[in-house]
Amino acid sequence: MKVGIVVYPGSNCDKDTLLYFPNATYIWHKSNKLLKDIDLLVLPGGFAFGDRYYTNATGEYIISPGQMALESEVTKIIQKAYQNKIPILGICNGFQILTKMNLLPGELTLNIDNKFTCKQVKCELTEKYSKENKKEDLYLQVANSYGNYQITDNELDKLKKNNQIFLTYKDEAYNNGSKEQIAGVCDKEHLIFGMMPHPERTFDTSIKYMIENIVTYAEVQLSYQKIFENRISELMESEHISYKSTRKYLKKLYTKGKHVVQGPGENAGIIDIGNDYCLALRIESHNHPVFIDPYQGAATGVGGILRDIFTMGARPIAILDFLRFGVDENSERLLKSTINGISDYGNCFGVANVGGELYRSEMYNKNPLVNVGCIGIVKKENIVYGNALEENSYFVYVGSKTGSDGMNGACMASNEFTSDIDIESMKSNIQKGDPFLEKLLLEACNEITEKKIVEECKIWELVDYYVLLWN
């Protein structure tokens, strides 16, 4: 665990903190660049620099613990550590600074007896952070005059609800006036910790154990976050989602007119056909999935286009397919299985395939295209859109059982295939369709919109699940 210890003018606890955290280095208060690979940032106590706030070098001052320290360049490092989700520990004056920066709730005021107190006191560490997962008595040193922790009742309730109070005083001979004897708190994410007692002065192993666990937890969470961000970047940069190479062509298509109710930007386009009725229509292409698993690739292509129609509140009434296949022996096999996938899904779902076309060329030998179109009918008053209008709407997530099939499908669909591709290893990227479940979902969604059993309902695609919002 690599630790950075912030040193302000007049610090006298920095050396003890360095001994407490052996793999540590000092960060002078005029520094403004965060050291690389820091796992923990510590703001130690024991400096008058944090208490007095001067208007000029020799002028009058006010007692405002932590205020003067905010003007140091190192504040930028503290903010950067917070943004990067690096754990921060503030001890005594360091705790005061964190409250002044609004990184921790509450404030530290003058002790109830108006005195500076330096003594050992009994404290209690909450079970969440103790070694034995039960409340633990600790004996720690306090040395402060502004250690009286105060917070509003409303904020106190939030602290309790989020388990943000990790240390309290339990010494009958010590009472500095702190609200409910609070000695240490953390932020909502449990990454920033502030405490008035000094664990470094007694080399307390329980607090050190707690901090080490926090650092380990933060590293795991950061690892998950990076994986998540990388996957999102892969998705958003894929042709399947961003249409980065075909956007310029799509912009040339006709999208406006008196009869156009909904143009690009939704799950499907909608045109007015008169008498308060509309047609919802959409077309999309499935190429790589069909090359890998023609039956499931084509079936999910049909399922996806049906979903795009009924998520607009429309009832699908017809499917069309426009196929582009190669001329070699493998293309013949792919074509037969693709046709079976299209027809089986449509038949099970209950929507007829009313037409289409087939064109064959050797250019499609390794890149067959299954362009599936669907139209649906909807009353104009029943159209729903993929947005949330009310802040307090309920969020309902509906779909098939979660499985490993379909993982990385969007990224895979934008890759170029080589001649040595392992088809079998990529079949897990293809989602397996379930027309019977989707039929139930269609009827449920249509009933919601037709009967208006909710004040507002928003339905949209999220991977291959559905999200409904209503008041």
Could you characterize the architecture of this molecule?
This protein folds into 2 domains: 226 residues, Class I glutamine amidotransferase (GATase) domain (Rossmann fold, 3-Layer(aba) Sandwich), CATH 3.40.50; 218 residues, 2-Layer Sandwich (60s Ribosomal Protein L30, Chain: A). It is built from 12 helices and 22 strands. The chain has a 9-stranded mixed β-sheet with strand order 2-1-3-6-13-12-11-8-9, sandwiched between helices. Helix 9 runs parallel beside helix 10 and helix 10 packs across helix 12.
Shape: elongated
The computed structural class is: alpha+beta
Radius of gyration: 32 Å
Q: Work out the helix count.
A: 12
Beta strand %: 25-35%
Question: What percent of residues adopt helix (DSSP H or I)?
Answer: 25-40%
CATH architecture of the largest domain: 3-Layer(aba) Sandwich
Which regions have little confidence, pLDDT < 50, spanning 5+ residues? 457-465
Spatial order of strands in the largest sheet: 2-1-3-6-13-12-11-8-9
Question: How many beta-strand elements?
Answer: 22
CATH class of the largest domain: Alpha Beta
CATH topology of the largest domain: Rossmann fold
The major sheet is characterized as: 9 strands, mixed
What does the average pLDDT come to?
A: 83
